[in-house]
Structures are given as structure tokens and as C-alpha cells.
Amino acid sequence: MGREKIKKKSTFIDMTAMSDVTVLLLTFFMLTSTFVKKEPVMVRTPDSVSEIKIPETDILQILMDKEAVRVLLSLPRWKPGCQNGKAVSVKYTLPIVFRLQ
Known about the structure:
Blueprint: H1 16-32, H2 66-73, E1 81-83, E2 86-88
Antiparallel strand pairs: 1-2
């Protein structure tokens, strides 16, 4: 007795229903989701590069000669303020005596 030859069946599967479900799910998620708003980031520039705002009233203007400018520029580099290992803003008053002649 011989064996019967079995016909091979096609491997084609209809995926129409699956693609319809996929489109429906994507549409659902797109319509129900909300985007996260970008939060503003505070950028703190070092005082050495930030601009100093000059008040418009109550101003005392001092004109310095070359020697006064040389003395100010010859001061050592300032060390940044540090508190608990973090840089902080520091204000310092430098006493300078001017003698008018």
C-alpha cells in the first residue's frame, strides 16, 4: 500500500481584522493622550558674566584716573561664594578712600 500524498496548504493569513484593530487602538491612544508641557528652566549665570543693572535715580558717578583703575585691576581674582558645597551669590563692599587734591 502506498502513502497518499497530502497537499500543502497555503500559509496566507488574512490580517485585515488585525490591522483594523491596530488603527483603532492607535487612534484611541492619540485622541486620549495629553502631551507634557515643557517646564521653564532657570539658568543662573555667574556674576562675572552677568550684566549689572544701574539704577536710574540716586546715582553717584565717580571718575577714576589711570592709577585707580590700575589698583582695582591688580586686585586678586575673587573666589566664588560657597555654602554647603554649592556656589551662592555674595555681595562685598570694597572700601576705597579717595583724596581730593
